[in-house]
Amino acid sequence: MSDKYKANDPNEIYFITTAVVQWADVFTHREYCEIICNSLAYCQQEKKLTIYAWCLMTNHLHLICSSPTLASTIRDFKKFTAKEVYKAVQQNPQESRKAWLSWLIRSAGELSSKHEEYKFWQVGYHPILLHNNHLMEQKLDYLHLNPVSAGFVEEPEHWSYSSAKDYAGHQGRLPITFIQ
């Protein structure tokens, strides 16, 4: 088995990405985004997740992070947020895509190797070891420019669900540890 996308060193910093099944645009309601933010904050406080940078897009999440138990922290984060976002979709009277999203998430679960009731996140989290400053800067720029490239905002710090605001000298949504 390849070690290419495994977080093997608990003392290192990784760039990770986790995406919604079928890259479905789920994070279009503030309520769903807040579930992700609150869960990340919990992982910071209770699971020793250090976040250096982050960006939540409509269908995926990027983190530059480290943790003594990164794989299990991300596993628990995904399991908890999958349940909470799915429940929020079901209970949201403004969700015009409720039937479609429910079908998509349930179908992904049925088709999964574990034949789960539902599946919200794609398998894995694609950790990339940031072993030098050039790679760290490249991923930091990529992560913060994601909403600009998608055409959602003109400046990275205008995106509410990102650490770009912190890097621009303002207080963002989550506490971060600056990359030195």
TrEMBL record:
Report the record's Gene Ontology biological process terms.
Answer: DNA transposition
All copies of domain Transposase IS200-like, residue ranges: 9-146
Q: Which domain of life is it from?
A: Bacteria
Q: Known Pfam families for this protein?
A: Y1_Tnp
Span-the-membrane segments of this chain are: none
**Which InterPro entries does the record match to this protein?**
RAYT_transposase, Transposase_17, Transposase_17_sf
Q: Where is the signal peptide?
A: none
Molecular-function GO terms, alphabetical: sequence-specific DNA binding; transposase activity
Name of the protein described by the UniProt record? Transposase
- The scientific name of the source species is Pontibacter actiniarum
